[in-house]
């Protein structure tokens, strides 16, 4: 497919394409995957420590500790983003910081910080969920679809 597109290009564009491909910096994909894996794993490790802390000191159970742990991780991410620390971690780890729930907190607070000069209502409030809104929407929608499918299969299985 790429060869067909390349043949349709004028000679000068083809020369530029070959010039560009020779000088293109190769990405260290394996190294980036390792960094993302270990940083994402470390974030999950911190989440496990927070869960253990809540279970031990506040008498939560394993079933009830999830919500306060998630809220704490999001709060810590927002705090680190506000101080500019989380962005540096994100530059280093890439998807390792975006995939866990901390990526949600970073997306929310980054949009709020970016638009704070426009005021609290129209700037911060209006733009806070600009990036995270689609994640929330499709997360809720997909949860609804999965619950609907599960309910249908339970009804058919019960007959």
From TrEMBL:
Origin: domain of life: Bacteria
UniProt entry keywords in alphabetical sequence: Membrane, Transmembrane, Transmembrane helix
Pfam families (UniProt xref): SpoVAC_SpoVAEB
Segments passing through the bilayer: 36-57, 69-86, 93-113, 133-153
InterPro entries, sorted: Spore_V_AC (IPR014203), SpoVA (IPR005562)
PANTHER family given in the database record: STAGE V SPORULATION PROTEIN AC, STAGE V SPORULATION PROTEIN AC-RELATED
The protein's name: Stage V sporulation protein AC
């Amino acid at each position: 497919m790429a060869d067909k597109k390349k043949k349709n290009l004028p000679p000068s564009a083809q020369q530029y394409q070959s010039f560009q491909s020779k000088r293109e910096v190769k990405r260290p994909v394996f190294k980036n995957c390792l960094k993302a894996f270990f940083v994402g794993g470390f974030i999950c490790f911190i989440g496990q420590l927070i869960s253990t802390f809540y279970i031990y000191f506040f008498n939560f159970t394993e079933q009830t500790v999830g919500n306060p742990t998630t809220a704490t991780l999001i709060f810590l991410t927002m705090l680190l983003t506000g101080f500019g620390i989380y962005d540096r971690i994100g530059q280093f780890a890439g998807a390792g910081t975006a995939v866990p729930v901390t990526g949600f907190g970073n997306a929310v607070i980054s949009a709020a910080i970016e638009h704070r000069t426009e005021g609290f209502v129209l700037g911060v409030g209006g733009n806070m969920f600009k990036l995270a809104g689609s994640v929330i929407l499709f997360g809720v929608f997909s949860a609804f679809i999965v619950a609907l499918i599960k309910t249908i299969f339970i009804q058919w299985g019960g007959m």
